[in-house]
Amino acid sequence: MAAMSSETPAPPAAPSTAPAAHPLTVGFDLDMTLIDSRPGIRAVYRALSAETGTFIDADAAVSRLGPPLAEELALWFPPSEIAAMADRFRAIYPAYAIAPTPALPGAREAVEAVRALGGRAIVVTAKYEPNARLHLEHLGIVPDAVVGGLWAEGKARALREYGARIYVGDHVGDVRGARAAGALSVTVPTGPCPGAELRAAGADVVLADLTALPQWLAAHTGHSAHTGRQEEQAEPEV
């Protein structure tokens, strides 16, 4: 193609729909990172089991939270029914899962710590986004953005879009998502994956739980005099 003449004005740039760059954006997973969703999800599985007459071991199901809903439903329903069962699960979810689900220790403080440093906190989760928002609204946790329906490496799309350089999660899938986005993987062993498994998956930091995040974040961003050994001090014994 011929070079554009200096007398020919360049076409105007299309307006960007991506969020503006931000000096500190921290992403958070939802289930078993910010919230203990086991009581609510257990109730939904029991209701779905009763409604369909299909046995679902709800206790086993909530012991492996993290991956997409369809993966768990595939253990209990034939392939031809999974999409319909996922739709039904999401439809009855608000009635059974929101009220019984508490925030995990330090969740609100972790989000507030990002804001206190002038940063932006986003939630990136595999959960159906409308139900994720219901949890956060019910618990009074107010992130700057919520993106649902993304798992493992798929989370990298939202993390890159929002410019998140840190992603906090509880599952090896969250580690994979952070690494795919080029973000620092900060983890908490409050879900199904113990600290040793998270480290083996490539987590950069393993904290005991979210109560340790504000201190670590302050050190990491240079808002503390103790910057040399923050990860070492924060990691629990395993």
Largest sheet: 6 strands, parallel
* Overall average pLDDT: 88
Instruction: Label the overall shape.
Output: globular
What is the helix tally?
11
What descriptive keywords fit this protein?
238 residues, disordered N terminus, alpha/beta, globular, six-stranded parallel sheet, disordered C terminus
Task: Describe what you observe in this structure.
The chain has 238 residues and is α/β, with parallel strands linked by helices. Helix content is 43%, strand content 9%. It has helices at 38-52, 58-62, 69-73, 79-97, 107-116, 129-139, 155-161, 172-181, 195-201, 213-220, 230-234, and strands spanning 25-28, 120-124, 145-147, 166-169, 184-187, 205-206. Strands 3-2-1-4-5-6 form a 6-stranded parallel sheet, with helices on both faces. Strand 2 (120-124), helix 6 and strand 3 form a beta-alpha-beta unit.
Quick rundown:
The protein is 43% helix and 9% strand. It has 238 residues and is α/β, with parallel strands linked by helices.
Q: Layout of SSEs?
A:
Blueprint: E1 25-28, H1 38-52, H2 58-62, H3 69-73, H4 79-97, H5 107-116, E2 120-124, H6 129-139, E3 145-147, H7 155-161, E4 166-169, H8 172-181, E5 184-187, H9 195-201, E6 205-206, H10 213-220, H11 230-234
Parallel strand pairs: 1-2, 1-4, 2-3, 4-5, 5-6
Helix pairs in contact: 1-4, 5-10, 7-8
